[in-house]
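Holo prediction. Input below; ligand is calcium ion.
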Amino acid sequence: MKKNIFIPLAALLVIALTIAVSVWKLTKKEETVAVKKQVITTVRKPFSPAKKSAISPIKKKVVVPRRVESRKVEPRRVEPRKVEPLAVMATTSLAATGAEELLVADFDSGEKPNNIGGNFGAWDKDPADFSQGCAESFDSKNRRGSKGFAMKLDYDVDSRNPAYNGFWMFLQNLDATGYNNVAFWIKGDSDEGYTTVFKVELKNAARQVGRYYVTNVTCDWQEVVIPLKSFKGITDFSNLTELVMVFEDRIASNKKGSIYIDDIRFTR
Ligand SMILES: [Ca+2]
Ligand SMILES: [Ca+2]
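Structure of the complex:
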């Protein structure tokens, strides 16, 4: 009897055990799959978007400064183009091509500036030394022509100190390449005296200075025509900035006096 009962009980136990084992195996497989899926998803999610977001802003950062740099370059290229037409306009308006002469200053308005818009006036080597100096004024009694004024220069280079002074006039970056001479009319004052010799200087934008000595000034109006070639210090006449007259103590035949000047021009 005991043997008959034990055998089915043992068989039941074996069946129950195999079922339990198979169930446990199934649940374990599902768990591993679930864990794998979790691992894959948790790895992929932070990995791929993190890389993309890390790359994309870097690309943008690289592109943006390049665009800014190119924008900075563009206006620089435009600026000189804006200057060039202005320079061309200035030279074409000042140096009239085809004209026999260019009038720079006739002083007939009795005011500054000159006929091409340039300022002018007297200058002193040492303004603190009152024993020397030069003063400019418009003079209608002594002038060239029947109207207007001439420029009167009252100079004094009689001093214990080294003395020189005179007259300056801006030429507004004048292009004088179409002309051969600078010309003006000159006259000494017979009552106040005058020097028969003085220096004329031309200056250009390259800071070159050309010098020429005018001689044989008299108390009558006479035209002085100085070839531009005579201004040895200047190699480029396309950009003249200034005309200067100089009375010098060591050169002046009369250290104190008055000189009249009128109709400053560039001629062919
Ligand atoms: Ca005049
Ligand atoms: Ca003096």
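Residues 106-108, 143-145, 148-150, 262-263 surround calcium ion (ligand 1) (CB under 6 Å). That is the main takeaway for now.
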